[in-house]
Write a structure and sequence with these properties.
Blueprint lengths: L1 E5 L11 H10 L4 E4 L11 H26 L10 E2 L2 H11 L4 H4 L2
Parallel strand pairs: 1-2, 1-3
Length: 107
Amino acid sequence: SIAPFLGFTPQGHHLDLRLVRSQWLLIDKNAECLMSEINEDKTLSNFRDLGHRLAEEVAAFMKKKLTSMLKKSTLCNCKLSFVGHSMGNIIIRESLSGKPNQTVCTM
């Protein structure tokens, strides 16, 4: 499974949820985690922009993973989970409310 983590502090640091990531990896050692960094210096932006940037970061992460799987001929089902805290959850919801990103869908 692949789990993008997004925390929110006034500074919005990508390591805010590292303890959650560590616990997740104890449960599923094959999980791959994206600790989102795209909005770190932009946490005062509007939610639409924050969500759009997060969606782009996740799409780029997934495209890289899918490309790697295709090269190795190891395609398999994968589960995409989002974990957030506080306002990070609002940003996650906003990232999922837009149009699907064609970059990943047209691989």
